[in-house]
Amino acid sequence: MKATIYDIAREAGVSIATVSQVINGKGKISEKRRAEIMEIMERLHYQPSAIAAALTGKQTYTLGLLVPDISNPYFAELARAVEDRSRQLGYSVVICSTDNKDERVERYLNLLQQKRVDGMMIGTGIDNADILSPLLQQSIPVALIARHMPSLSVHTVTIDDILGGRLAAEHLLELGHTRLAVLSEPSKVSSSQERVQGFRETLNRAGYTLEQDQIRESAADLSSAKKEALLLLGENDHPTGLFCCNDIQAIGALQAAKELGLRVPEDVSIIGFDNTILASVTSPPLTTVAQPIEDLGHRAVDLLIEELKDERKEPQKIVLKPELVIRDSAGRVMAKNNDASSVR
Q: If DSSP codes are grouped into helix, strand and coil, which group holds residue 340?
């Protein structure tokens, strides 16, 4: 039989009122005692009735998370961070993969509303921000993760993507590269566009121009990234430095370079973005701009729960700092591959 609130109270040696306060995140209960009761609930597989809570207008202790593709290591690590933090605070998470398609976003938003989730985290690209309006009309807390939607009054947790692009450009310039290119995600992905912006502005300040034909867009999957990288790297005067707006694209570029017979980093240097677990196991290991992925997930959860507890009503904007992680995929330019005539 399923454990009941009475079983939890008896096991913990407390009243059912105390257990209820732990479940609802209320009451003056020490963190140690609260953790002990949560551990008992987990050990006995106790689950408060979300359906009953929803029908009575109470919290369901469930959050929604929308990401483009849970198979992408970045979003897998982000989802794990969100799930871990939510579980610590007594919440469950429903995770949905949208493929950055508005129709799927809208369908999942409707589904999550039907399930009466208490709050939503949006980590996916959206063309039409209006599809989030029903959430705001129903006062459902929303936190954007690594996304910008200035037209909406919602919480936002991002990194300084412009700084991230700048770090990549500075590193390639320091290594002597001036013939550069970028592999970007589609324009609906605001974070990627800001990374390109930071990269381009840094080159401009150094006296170089990044032409539009040296920026190619691809979806965040290996096959698409490899296809576009083959086009960038397949020319005789191919770029000697390639900045990719995520690690998956960078790995696709590594595959393209290998197929073309180009050595990394001797013939072409490649820099990624995210610093997922894959970055350290590629050949060569990937130089990349690291995001504080765990912190992003934890901060988003905290903002939603603070609002649910009525501790913070005004939308908050948190911007975290990226860092360059230097490995072996970017090296000093070979003089014969970067003559002055190639600078635009």
A: helix
Which pair of tokens denotes residue 253?
A: 């570029």
| Contact by Cβ (8 Å): 172, 232 | no
Pairing of strands 323-325, 287-290: antiparallel
In angstroms, the CA 247 to CA 233 distance is: 17
Residue 141's alpha-carbon distances to 54, 61, 92, 310, in angstroms, are: 16, 13, 15, 11
**For residues 190-208, average pLDDT:** 96
More confident: 187 or 231? 231
* pLDDT of the residue at 137: 85
Q: How far apart (Å, rounded) are the C-alpha atoms in residues 308 and 328?
A: 45
Q: Sign of torsion, CA 180 281 334 167?
A: positive
Angle in degrees, CA 78, 83, 86, rounded to 5 = 125
- The span from the CA of 83 to the CA of 298, in Å, is 9
Which of 141, 187, 181, 173 lies closest to 311 in space, CA to CA? 141
Q: What tokens were used for 285?
A: 């290991």
* Whole-Å CA distances, 319 to 202, 238, 260, 304: 20, 35, 39, 16
Report the DSSP beta bridge partners of residue 182: 215, 243
- Per DSSP, the residues of 8-21 read HHHHHTS-HHHHHH
Q: 3-class DSSP state for residue 83?
A: helix
pTM over 0.70: yes
Asked if residue 34 lies in contact with residue 186, where contact means CB atoms within 8 angstroms, the answer is no
Q: Return d(Cα 258, Cα 247) in angstroms, integer.
A: 17
